[in-house]
Amino acid sequence: MTDTLQATPAIQPEKPVLLQPDNHNKKYEALFVEIDTGQIKLPIFQREFVWEKEQSAKLIDSILKGFPIGTFIFWKTKEELRSYKEVGNHKLPETQQGDYVQYILDGQQRITSLYAIRKGIRITKDGKEIDYRDIFINLDHDQENDEQIVVTERQEEKRYLSVHRLLTSQVTDLLDDFPSRETLKQIEAYKGKLTNYDFSSITIKDYPIEVACEVFSRINTGGKALTVFEIMVAKTYDEAKGFDLAEKYELLRDGSDEEKECLVAAKFETLPESIIMQCVAAITLRAVRSKDILKIRRETFIANWEPMKAALFMAIDFLRSELRVPVSQLVPYPALLVPLTYFFHVTGNKKPANEQARLLEQLFYWVGLTERYSSATESKLGEDFNKIDSIIKGATPNYSNLELTVDPKVIETTQFSAGNAYCKAILCLLAYHQPKSFDTNGIVILDNSNLKIATSRNYHHFFPKKYLEEHHKGKEPNLIANITLIDGYSNKHRIGKKAPSEYIGKFEKDNKELADTFKTHLIKDMDGYGIRLDDYEKCIQQRANAIALALNVKLMSMTPAM
Hints:
Blueprint: E1 22-26, H1 28-36, E2 40-41, H2 53-64, E3 72-77, E4 86-87, E5 90-91, E6 101-106, H3 108-119, E7 122-125, E8 128-131, E9 136-138, E10 150-151, E11 160-162, H4 163-168, H5 181-195, E12 199-205, H6 209-220, H7 228-235, H8 245-254, H9 273-284, H10 290-294, H11 298-321, H12 337-346, H13 354-369, H14 377-392, H15 408-413, H16 421-432, E13 459-461, H17 465-471, E14 483-485, H18 488-495, H19 500-510, H20 514-519, H21 536-554
Parallel strand pairs: 2-6, 3-12
Antiparallel strand pairs: 1-12, 3-6, 4-5, 7-8, 9-10, 9-11, 13-14
């Protein structure tokens, strides 16, 4: 596949590769040499070094006693991953470009402990400095009571030798402190046990990155897989180009003093990292499967980051301005941004023609109302690129006629859920009409934080729940046709559990345009909807009809004139 900024056909499946791990042993000194020459590295998706000194002391104690300490697992590859550059006060060396590197998949805490002690590293943790030179061999330990040989605290009248000093000195250098021949033999024996200890290790060489990361996930996090984003953060890191995906994503989401365009400013900050990865893959490969994303080469991913951002913000702008979806919390599926980003990238980020805009709106509501991305999302996104290609040409994509028709009877009985795609599509329709406040006739400001769950402030049951419980027992209040989008203050302080006829009478005194206000909530006729008589069933039926009609217009199965 040729690296390009234009969308290309999805990559073809590859033949499976026969993988075989290599079992071998490493000596203590070999570990130091390989770390010091940059051959062993800590991938960034590993946890930081978190072991306390006491844990490190017990590790050395186990080695001196000849206990097994587990197996180290390395991934040997020429892949360049983002890795830690230092351990405490010690800077780790770079690796020559193109050379093999062994990334630690299992054993980081143990290997880092051994290295920290050998190098005498100091690490600041929670404001307190930990000095790994202060781990000692108790030369007078009680063998009969199986006392711990290696300790972090010294007692008076006992002789101790720093493990760091043991490993970095010749035995003859210790004569002044330990003149006894017997003690020197003891020290020499301890050093021999450490330096000659066989560390069991397994190396997986040239495994694909997704397989290596699956190995890491299984052995380190109880089966919890690394996310595609976490893997790509490691894979795409490029210091020379100043590209750090973790930082780039934070900048995309939160912005900065220099970078004002961001998801927070656009009120689309709830888009997850996974969707951003799929947007990059959409414009790069025209495929969004996890395994496809992981195969994007570093330079290709980096080259497509800014084009993806440009197309993504055009997609968000289209949703906000043309479809009037003001916040990401209302979008039926975050994945809807993926085909839209693909559309704008392929069209050169140009404003869509009128017919293209209508067809994109149709696709948007079709996805939500059919709950299309509730399963097999990656495959369905791949199919929907074909629909986007049709829209780019101004042609209507293929849909089933049944999928483009909304039955008002279904809406009448649909339970409201703030997380359900079908309900969210209806909420987007309500937002499109720019609902106004009952009391002031001002535009209702919608916010992601107030739209998360069904009990959030912007969601108002037109016939309040408590009113129905008291006066219409047995009636289901939590229907989508009973939901309006209003400001939180009016919802809580001016409506409460009052009957619609009661609270509307009060709003009419302040808002002389209340009838027009209700039209922005698809309540077109207070009398015809039975509101002044508090007729719940009639209101639900009439509003369901109005919602269905408006949705069918969006789906282009009906025209506004009808």
